[in-house]
Amino acid sequence: MDQPGAGTPGFLPPFKHFATSAIHSGQEPEQWRSGAVVPPISVSTTFKQRAPGEHTHYVYTRFGNPSRHILEEVVGTLDGAQSLAYSSGLAALLNICHLLKTGDTVICMDDVYGGTNRYFQKVASENNLKVVFVDCTKPKCLEAAITPKTKLVWLETPTNPTLKVIDIQACADVVHRHPGVLLAVDNSLMSPYFQRPLSLGADICMSSATKYMNGHSDVLMGVISVNDEDLYNQLKFLQSALGAVPSPFDCYMCNRGLKTLHIRMKLHFHNGLAVAKFLKSHRRVEKVIYPGLHCHPQYEVTKKQNSGVSGVMSFYIKGNIKNALAFLNNLKVFALAESLGGYESLAEHPATMTHKSVPEDVREDLGITETLIRLSVGLEDEEDLLADLDQALEAAVSGVPGHPGNGIPVLPAQLRVCAAAAAAAGLGHKGWFLVLLSGLSFSSHPSPQLKILIEPTLF
């Protein structure tokens, strides 16, 4: 897997006609009187009827809306199913759980998104649902946990934030030996471009479209896809009855984001793999967790069920929480922020941010320690991302406080200028150097990764 992208060796081949479907499905200009190539945004909340009780297709926007209908048709095509859109990923989860009844049991993967964990731990379990957390990377553990009261198995793969990969097909085989149990898979970290859970045996595919599907960090939305008509009708009723639907404008924005999903995911994969390899070789990093690396424990599973890997990864920095926080505070290109899947690169500290609500002992058991850092690698230039990570890692060890996002990125080209200026000033010793050039301050410590840029002029 040296050259990521379409047709990555060892991975599933890309899904056919993905880009064409994302651009054209459900959006034929002929359906609009104007012939508009870009679907119009329908903000109306109500629709005129021909006569009392006689309507065309739409009645009230909570029941259905042209803008939402287009988005649902596109997502359904990409997932290979029928789709429904919701106001958030957690709203989608809530709708799925309303398929259950008092006393039913849910089996949830033990390592999941913090909001999912919070919902199951503090909401569902207090509203007459029994929730059991199981390591579903081991199908035998899943099999042992299923009881006659089990009605839903909730998987997330890769998991967030420790990037465990679950064999969806193996779990589907286990679940479907028990009639009446549904298998739902959170596909937020992969998107339909890299993974199609329904084709692997899942009954329900849920995605936080806020993440990669929209891809621009400006829409809050969730989507559900199913390929069973009865299940679709049940969820369609709940969508209307519970009312957690997205706005027409958000549907338009997400639909717009889907047009470039195939392009973005290829670059997320490329940059993500480059960052993962860089971190893996860095002296300040203890361990890197990225499904696209050969050393990942479920690398073979990843190749079997995915056509590629996204830009999300986690790593353990050497040292303690002070080093982790210093690293985050010294980043310049990466923004210190929660969420993932946007065009911009983000970094966060799960133990104090996204997964703070998870009990501390549970976090420790899952490997969400004080030195774990999660990255969402964006679409910036690869060399800039690597340089930013390197300078922040070095600053984390030296104890420089830093301010997130307020400095000038330490970029390879700038380092060459700094090195030359430092040499001219007689600062030819190995170690710290500081150069004031054109009113901009640069500070760095040469590491093995950047020494090659500095050595010809500085040493």
TrEMBL record:
<comment type="subunit">
    <text>Homotetramer. Interacts with CALM in a calcium-dependent manner.</text>
</comment>
<protein>
    <recommendedName>
        <fullName>Cystathionine gamma-lyase</fullName>
        <ecNumber>4.4.1.1</ecNumber>
        <ecNumber>4.4.1.2</ecNumber>
    </recommendedName>
</protein>
<dbReference type="InterPro" id="IPR015424">
    <property type="entry name" value="PyrdxlP-dep_Trfase"/>
</dbReference>
<dbReference type="GO" id="GO:0047982">
    <property type="term" value="F:homocysteine desulfhydrase activity"/>
</dbReference>
<comment type="pathway">
    <text>Amino-acid biosynthesis; L-cysteine biosynthesis; L-cysteine from L-homocysteine and L-serine: step 2/2.</text>
</comment>
<keyword id="KW-0028">Amino-acid biosynthesis</keyword>
<dbReference type="GO" id="GO:0005737">
    <property type="term" value="C:cytoplasm"/>
</dbReference>
<keyword id="KW-0198">Cysteine biosynthesis</keyword>
<dbReference type="GO" id="GO:0019346">
    <property type="term" value="P:transsulfuration"/>
</dbReference>
<dbReference type="GO" id="GO:0019343">
    <property type="term" value="P:cysteine biosynthetic process via cystathionine"/>
</dbReference>
<feature type="modified residue" description="N6-(pyridoxal phosphate)lysine">
    <location>
        <position position="211"/>
    </location>
</feature>
<dbReference type="GO" id="GO:0030170">
    <property type="term" value="F:pyridoxal phosphate binding"/>
</dbReference>
<dbReference type="InterPro" id="IPR000277">
    <property type="entry name" value="Cys/Met-Metab_PyrdxlP-dep_enz"/>
</dbReference>
<dbReference type="InterPro" id="IPR015422">
    <property type="entry name" value="PyrdxlP-dep_Trfase_small"/>
</dbReference>
<dbReference type="InterPro" id="IPR054542">
    <property type="entry name" value="Cys_met_metab_PP"/>
</dbReference>
<dbReference type="GO" id="GO:0004123">
    <property type="term" value="F:cystathionine gamma-lyase activity"/>
</dbReference>
<dbReference type="Pfam" id="PF01053">
    <property type="entry name" value="Cys_Met_Meta_PP"/>
</dbReference>
<dbReference type="InterPro" id="IPR015421">
    <property type="entry name" value="PyrdxlP-dep_Trfase_major"/>
</dbReference>
<keyword id="KW-0663">Pyridoxal phosphate</keyword>
<comment type="similarity">
    <text>Belongs to the trans-sulfuration enzymes family.</text>
</comment>
